[in-house]
Structures are given as structure tokens and as C-alpha cells.
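#struct-help
A.M.: can someone run this one for me? Single chain, 339 residues.
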Amino acid sequence: MKAAYLKAPFQYEVKEVPLRAVGDFEVLVKVKACSVCGHDMILSSYGATEWQPFGHEISGLVEKVGVHVKNVKVGDKVVLESGTFDRFSANSRNGRVDLDNKGPNFWLRPDDTMGFADFIVVPMEVCVAFEGLTYEETCVVEPLGVALDLVKTAEVKLNNDVLVIGLGPIGLMATRLAKAMGARKVYGSELSVAKARIALARKWGVDEIICPDQQSLVDYPFERGGVDRVLVTAPPKTIPDAISVANVGGIIGFLGIDYGPGGMVTFDSNAFHTKKLQLRSSFASPALYFPECLDLIKSGVVPTHELNTHPFRIDGIAQGITGFRDDRENGVKALLIND
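D.P.: on it. C-alpha cells below:
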């Protein structure tokens, strides 16, 4: 079987590797689609100092199951949670499965493949079966779960004005969810070069677009003077601006990632205090809400097929990912398609 590996900066290698045996509680999945995550781009840029498998936004077809697997069968179409909770942990048994991410997963097992491969062997617990949707639509269920966790964490409510900072795939899906949850007005912030993302945001119902390279977010004339909720899917350096534009009593949900000095931010604690703001971390690990996300795609609330702009085959993964990286004007989402 073929499997892809990466090493920073933007080095990719496709290897022929053996397909290992399937354990009693495991499932062999033929990867049909795997989309590129922002975290994959960070690893490609500077995060991976050694060769490693990658890819965790996966949909595929069940090829084989272990003798004790009961939740899926051969021939099922499945999406894969990158990792789930430990059902025996204290947090899980106390009703907070969202606080436990030590359960079965396929994340960075050095001797196994991940999503950018022909096949992947996974724990049975991470398999969620679906019908009536394509592999291309469903491989983004994992990031849709991230977006759903973000809007739930920020408690978007009826008649809120919402600002989404960063209109990548997660930010775009968050705009759709915010609208569906009753937001009065949704603003989106994205660099002007990202024309395809801005166009899709407008198509998906974002009311106003702010390009921070052309106009200061802090000085933008929001209709209510600011916004009630801010959803940050951009790097941490955007948090101070989010705090500045939040109205009194506002909630800021945050999931952006950076490392080293880029992970450190400072802000005016007095303004934060007097405006009675809340800054809440959204970290969708374990991966949750997959059945709900599948329903949201089926019902048309989030038309995920419209995100996919840069498909590629496994033998062309280097050109596919670097081409997507360099096409900032037209790129929304890149994804591997397997026959």
C-alpha cells in the first residue's frame, strides 16, 4: 500500500509500506477522502522535525473488521474520529466525556499510517457509519465538529451579533452554524487576498466582510458598536483585537494555534474586566458531535462540498499541498481523493 509522510519544510514522500494485521478490536478502512487541516500545514511548515505520517480528516470504506467489532461491518461507509474518550475515566464516568482525550485514537502512531494513505487501521470506537452522503462531503466532518464545538463553547444565541475571525474552512462552517443558531448579524474577518473564501462567506450568508489588511478591525463601524460573540479561528495574536471589539458581557471563543513566541499574547486586563468579558478555549479533543454534524450536512445547513477547491491523488500529494498553499486567492480546502 501507499502512504505519505511529511517533514518540514514542506517535504513529502510517498512510500510503499506493508499493510499490517487487523487486531480483534480494530477496523481496516480504505481511505476514500482525506482533507488537509491547518495543523497539517503547520506541521509541514515547521512542526515536523522528523518524517511522520499525517492526515486525520478521513472518510472511507470498511474493508475488514476484527472478531470483536460490532459497531460497523464490512462495506459500511465511515467517518473517523481522530480520537475519542476513555469510557472508564473519572471525567467520563462523571458525565464529562468532553474533558477526556485519552481514549482510543489513531493520532501519530509512529508505526502506522494515517489518512494520507491507501488504507488505515483504526480502533473500532472511532468509526461512525453514514449513508446518503459522499466521501468528499464527509471527510470534513472532523473540522465541522471543531466548528460546532466553537459555537457551542461561545454560546451563540438568538439575536447575537457574531464576528468570525479567520474564514478558513472551520471559520466558514462556524458562520453557517452561527446563522443557524439565530445570530442576527454575522461579520467575517479575512485577508483580502483570500478571494474564494470571502466569496464563499458571502454566499453562505455572512453579512459584512472586514479585511484587516485594508481596514483596522478595532476601528470598524459595527452596527451595535461591537459584537456579542467573537469566534477566533486565526492565530493567537488576534485575541487582543477580539477583546477590543467585544461588547459588554461578550464571549470570545478561541481555537487558533501557534507555537513559540506566536503562542503568547498580552491584552488590557482592565478593559477585559470592566467589560465583563469571557475568553473560552475551544479544543475539540476528543472529537465529538459526528452524528450531529452528519445531520447538518444532510439537511443542507452546512454544504461542505462547496469547501473543496483543490483535490489531488496520493502520488501528487507534494504538488497538491504546495499548490494549495501557494494559491491563496482561490484556495479554500485541499483534499486527497482515492479510487
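A.M.: thanks! The radius of gyration is 20 Å.
D.P.: also worth noting: The domain at 144-281 is CATH 3.40.50.720 (Rossmann fold).
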